[in-house]
């Protein structure tokens, strides 16, 4: 019933699962923000996530070390990013198309490795919940914010960190300059290629972590195509967040909270057809995007390959 | 720029809504069967083969949307084909498969390829393949096709239809769940409110209601067959809402089973035996044994009947079996109730009223 939605248990439940659901979006979308700020659109996020998820799961399962699994996911993501950087920076490939190519590669490769190395769905003991002393005892808030696993905390720490790097450091200035006006940046001695390599590889690493956050922290299983479109939503969230980490956080939270709200709506038998309920996060996201998209401007050089004019 | 925003958005929507396509080329893998001609008569086939021993092995190709090892729909078919091969012998029965065919167009191409290659029986293991099959089958009048889960053969002489009476196993699981719940709240994680999943869940609800009308069944359809993360969060939601027994249908439930295990809630499986994922909490799984139906179909094809009939896997013909998890200590009286319920459904004394 609708009135049940406003009980404390339900509100805590919605917020806590919203925070969990938003974690992989945050890693992937913050990584994508760096890439797009420097003028590179990477649509291969989903593929990087899938390979990262598999690598983390497989290494964690065979070695028993979750940290080694996480590290492998980062390395795999970095390699995928390196390949993407070579294709887009050195070969000047059309970014949207090559990104989709990398997505398909990650999808197929993770599936193939899963078939050959695991063969069936298995489980692993993932990162445990960390109860932050004192804070986790606060009624309500403690359960929502301070009783999550380490990768959830990491995702939320990443947001201010990314904001700081992009807006308050020389590196961030270079990234933005390369994304807005690569010719000017180049003439001032900023290496467009090196900057873009850096952001794309960083994006790959964070996508790898996004995948790992699913396979060894939140879900603790690997299944083919387990990201199921999440990486593409992450790309959309970068637009939604207007290329600002805080905006990305807002978008990821909005989408995830509405998703957990619709789960509760069904559980509490609120009389709404399930098809409408599952549509809600998408509809709301589109509505907000429509309302805001005209007010923001993308990095000018986004998705344009840079060629030095002699 | 705006145009591009829309492009990305649409892409995100489409890919997430339909559970992202697996865009690999048809990965047709032949099992280790050799091409050596089989001279012996098929020894152990139960199919009514009065016809002389076929000189060549019976060749089956199957196209399925998910994977052969999804612990659900795809696996149920793969396991059935393996069992038939064990029974008939690798020299008399060969099969190949294409998995991950979420994209119906790819599946249609694979179905056509297999028919062209002269397989005796081509199985389209997914109800979404129906309209493609309707177009393809008339082009290959010598090839037999099977399509499930459905009852519709399109009136074509070379299409068999098969389905599972999943409400029967669902009912038995529901009876057991109602007996075992202490909190009187049960959670169900479903994919999309249609087809086999809906039938199972409706049967489950009927089983609970018939056993203990005070037990509340909360149902959650997450709108996807592949979103493991959302399935897992749905399970967490059920548990927060007080559920101590959970069930769910389709391949994305692997995410939900993990959450049930963490909370020490019981789990009932369907489509395939899911006990391996969480041996402590899986009570029982309703398992499809498609081989019961496939053997009938193979027998008919060998006798020259290529289609036009539909089959149902149910508890009575053994196409559906309730498999109990030996690692879970089910109280004997509850087990007895389950056995009685199965018997009742088979002999017709238990009737299942679906909504």
Describe the model:
- Chain A has 310 residues and is mainly α.
- Chain A has a domain at 23-228.
- In chain A, 71% of the residues lie in helices and 2% in strands.
- Chain A is built from twelve helices and two strands, in the order H-H-H-H-E-H-E-H-H-H-H-H-H-H.
- Chain A has helices at 8-37, 45-63, 66-90, 95-118, 141-145, 150-168, 170-180, 182-187, 192-218, 230-240, 245-267, 274-292, and strands at 129-131, 147-149.
- A two-stranded antiparallel ribbon of chain A has the order 1-2.
- In chain A, helix 1 packs antiparallel against helix 11 (245-267), helix 2 (45-63) crosses helix 10 and helix 3 runs antiparallel to helix 4 (95-118).
- Chain A is globular and about 65 Å long.
- The N and C termini of chain A lie far apart (69 Å).
- Chain B is of the alpha/beta class and 355 residues long.
- Chain B has a domain at 166-288 and 318-347: Response regulator (Rossmann fold, 3-Layer(aba) Sandwich).
- Chain B has ten helices and twelve strands.
- Chain B has helices at residues 2-17, 73-88, 104-116, 130-136, 166-180, 195-211, 228-240, 254-262, 291-302, 332-347, and strands at residues 58-63, 93-98, 121-125, 144-148, 159-164, 185-190, 216-221, 245-248, 266-271, 282-288, 310-313, 320-324.
- Chain B has a six-stranded parallel β-sheet with strand order 2-1-3-4-5-11, sandwiched between helices. In chain B, strands 7-6-8-9-10-12 form a six-stranded mixed β-sheet, sandwiched between helices.
- In chain B, strand 3 (121-125), helix 4 and strand 4 form a beta-alpha-beta unit.
- Chain B is globular, with a radius of gyration of 21 Å.
- Chain B starts with a helix and ends in an 8-residue tail after the last helix.
- At the A-B interface, helix 1, helix 4, helix 10, helix 11 and helix 12 of A face helix 1, strand 7, helix 7 and helix 8 of B.
């Amino acid at each position: 019933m609708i009135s049940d939605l406003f009980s404390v248990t339900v509100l805590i439940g919605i917020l806590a699962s919203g925070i969990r659901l938003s974690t992989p979006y945050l890693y992937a979308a913050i990584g994508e923000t760096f890439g797009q700020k420097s003028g590179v659109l990477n649509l291969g996020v989903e593929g990087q996530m899938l390979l990262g998820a598999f690598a983390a799961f497989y290494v964690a399962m065979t070695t028993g070390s979750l940290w080694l699994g996480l590290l492998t996911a980062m390395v795999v993501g970095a390699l995928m990013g390196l390949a993407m950087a070579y294709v887009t920076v050195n070969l000047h490939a059309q970014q949207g198309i090559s990104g989709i190519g990398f997505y398909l590669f990650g999808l197929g490769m993770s599936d193939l490795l899963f078939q050959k190395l695991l063969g069936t769905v298995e489980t692993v003991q993932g990162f445990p919940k960390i109860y932050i002393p004192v804070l986790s005892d606060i009624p309500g808030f403690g359960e929502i914010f301070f009783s999550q696993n380490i990768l959830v905390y990491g995702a939320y720490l990443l947001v201010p960190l990314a904001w700081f790097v992009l807006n308050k450091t020389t590196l961030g200035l270079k990234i933005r300059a390369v994304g807005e006006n690569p010719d000017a940046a180049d003439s001032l001695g900023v290496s467009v290629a090196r900057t873009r390599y850096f952001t794309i590889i960083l994006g790959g690493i964070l996508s790898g972590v996004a995948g790992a956050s699913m396979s060894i922290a939140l879900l603790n299983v690997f299944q083919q195509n387990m990201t199921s479109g999440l990486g593409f939503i992450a790309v959309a969230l970068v637009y939604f967040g207007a290329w600002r980490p805080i905006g990305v956080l807002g978008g990821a939270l909005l989408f995830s909270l509405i998703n957990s709200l619709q789960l509760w709506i069904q559980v509490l038998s609120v009389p709404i057809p399930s098809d409408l309920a599952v549509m809600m996060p998408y509809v709301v996201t589109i509505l907000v995007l429509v309302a805001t998209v005209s007010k923001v401007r993308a990095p000018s050089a986004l998705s344009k390959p840079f060629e030095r004019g002699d | 720029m705006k145009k591009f925003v829309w492009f990305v958005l649409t892409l995100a929507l489409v890919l997430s809504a339909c559970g992202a396509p697996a865009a690999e080329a048809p990965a047709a893998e032949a099992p280790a069967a050799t091409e050596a001609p089989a001279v012996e008569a098929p020894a152990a086939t139960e199919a009514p083969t009065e016809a002389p021993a076929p000189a060549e092995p019976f060749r089956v190709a199957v196209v399925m949307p998910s994977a052969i090892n999804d612990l659900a729909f795809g696996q149920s078919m793969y396991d059935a084909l393996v069992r038939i091969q064990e029974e008939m012998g690798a020299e008399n029965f060969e099969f190949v498969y294409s998995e991950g065919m979420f994209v119906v167009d790819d599946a249609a191409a694979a179905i056509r390829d297999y028919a062209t290659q002269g397989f005796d029986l081509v199985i389209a293991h997914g109800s979404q393949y129906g309209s493609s099959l309707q177009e393809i089958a008339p082009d290959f009048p010598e090839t037999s096709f099977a399509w499930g889960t459905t009852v519709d053969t399109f009136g074509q002489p070379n299409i068999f239809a098969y389905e599972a009476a999943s409400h029967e196993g669902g009912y038995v699981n529901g009876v057991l769940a109602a007996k075992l719940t202490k909190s009187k709240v049960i959670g169900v994680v479903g994919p999309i409110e249609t087809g086999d999943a809906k039938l199972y869940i409706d049967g489950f609800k009927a089983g609970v209601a018939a056993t203990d009308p005070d037990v509340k069944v909360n149902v959650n359809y997450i709108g996807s067959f592949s979103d493991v993360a959302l399935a897992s969060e749905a399970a967490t939601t059920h548990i927060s809402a007080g559920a101590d027994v959970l069930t769910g249908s389709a391949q994305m439930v692997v995410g939900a089973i993990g959450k049930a295990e963490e909370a020490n809630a019981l789990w009932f499986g369907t489509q395939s035996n899911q006990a391996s994922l969480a041996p402590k909490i899986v009570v029982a799984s309703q398992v499809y044994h498609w081989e019961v139906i496939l053997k009938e179909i193979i027998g008919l094809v060998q006798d020259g009947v290529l289609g036009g009939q539909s089959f149902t896997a149910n508890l009575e013909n053994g196409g559906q079996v309730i498999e109990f998890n030996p690692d879970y200590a089910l109280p004997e009286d509850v087990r007895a109730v389950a056995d009685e319920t199965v018997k009742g459904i088979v002999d017709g004394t238990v009737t299942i009223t679906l909504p």
